[in-house]
User: Fold these one by one.
Assistant:
Number 1:
Amino acid sequence: MTPKKDHPGVYPPPPLFYVLTFLISIFFQNKIPLSTTFLETDISFIMGLIFVMLGILFILPALIKFFKTKNTLITIKPANSLQTTGIYSISRNPMYLGLLSIYIGVAFFKGNYWTFILIPIVILVITYFVILKEEKYLSRTFETDYTDYKKKVRRWI
């Protein structure tokens, strides 16, 4: 019997948490409607564009870095290397930060105030059910390299 390789133990794909939170906001809007007047303005549209572009600016270099280093995006597979340079020198979690920014952008485009109200929930869920698990795994796997990296770079930004 071959031993199982260690991995973060995050089973639902993390983008799913953002999508589910958005769907929950739609459910709440149907049950307890809040005005969407501001979200139908040009300012809201521009804000949405800004947040989506900011999200892409975080996600794209992170994805490129992962592909160049042949690292995995699948959270139930072991990491090949520790990412610490480029966008990873600004945030330890640029993909989750980028997804959050895109979530906010989509909220300005297609969301409702419930979408914004649930932002702290999505941050807590990602932090406690994804990031903390990944951090424990990275500490086990990369030991002092990861500890040193954590001292230099913040979790979100």
Number 2:
Amino acid sequence: MTIIDLEHVHLFCTALGSDRAVPLLLVHGWGGDGREWSAHAETLADRFRVIVPDLRGHGRSDVPDEGNTPTEMADDLAALLRHLGTGPVIAAGHSMGGQVVNLLAVRHPELVRSVVALDPAHGAHGAEVEGIPARLAEYRKRGARAAAEFIAGAFPAGAPVGLRTAHVRTMLGTPDHVIAQAYAGMYTDSGAVGVRPHSEAYLRRRTQPALTVWTSAQAAQWERGTLRVPGSRVEHWPDTGHYLHEEHVGRTVRLLKDWATAGHGTR
């Protein structure tokens, strides 16, 4: 499985595991691609049908001139899942991908069994919100170079060797207009859900159980207050950088397996 023609967009996608297994969708974040899930996908393929797309504008998928936003990406994934005939999936995403899988769950609830969001791009508040206009202006002016400078600071001193370099390199390879459009789509466009009041409104529309993992204790406490669906929970992983799933591959794999075992892989 490589390039899939969804008529309105071509997405690069790979799949591992049995077609009869529970489908698990793994979604990368802003300026990334599906390669960040490679170690997880190989390990999880003995338990799940693991589906790993590159989002529009990223990796080997199409790069539209417009519409490179989380909402459009969620709708692309809905079309992809219908094309593949997977039935409802466990939808897991990191950062912007966490926002995308939550949008997928809200906009296309019949396609999602449950959600796993890892340090998702929602719930922004305070100084983070105050800095959004200046960051967006930089992304519109300098594109991937500005984004790479920002993301280089997302890794702790103890991060695996090469992880920072890999993500800076991938970010620099993302088209400038995609960087700016995706960021605006997360936080400033009409209907964007990244800022806390908008995040709360859309998370309360989600009907599926969700597991959210935060590296911020404050963010974890906030999201616990938004939970409405029985079986949902929030975890806090302290002393971890933003790319927690790659810093702790084994722990993330166990998290996903345990989540499915607890009944969130069935519906």
Number 3:
Amino acid sequence: MSRSTINLTPELHDYLLSVTIREPEVFKELRKETGTMEMARMQISPEQGQFMHLLVKLMNAKCTLEIGTFTGYSALWTALALPDYGTVVACDVNEGWTNIAKRYWKKAGLDEKIDLHIDPAEKTLQKFVDAGQEGQYDFAFIDADKTGYDTYYELCMKLVRSGGLIIFDNVLRGGRVIDDEANDDSTIAIRKLNEKLHKDDRIDLSMVPISDGLTLALKR
């Protein structure tokens, strides 16, 4: 029994990975290539990817949103959990990163499940709302510019069905959310979002300390 979350030492983290992660080889290859990039820190961890994969399966999700795709690792995990006719609608603005993603999606045999939109996510999501797609998505993963999180949240609340799940990455900001001296725009935006979600009676809520913090918001 424990009344608080255990502190993961590097050794305990390695053990956790060794007894839980079932990562396809292509996924490992993408992580390795992304790890050589200057922005490698933007990639989610394998334990987070597998956790999201499990959530998508538990929900029997068929149509999902991803805001912020980077090199495509999270989209791979989500697509793998979907049925053959399922779709990940992925939003990003960087073709350099997503060209890497497309290469690995194809190599994994999952490219036909992923519908990539290169445009500002707010514009793409609003287009879906305007097209009458409200309530048509089961799941949304938000992992893009932190100052845009609240806007993406409100749009996803329209697009995701009742009983659907919206997930936010980086909600602990490496611990900076509790650092009074950390007042950059992104950290301030995340603090405000965390406080808003805590009071939002449109959702059921859980923040879990996976990687850099992951918030799960279940739309009522």
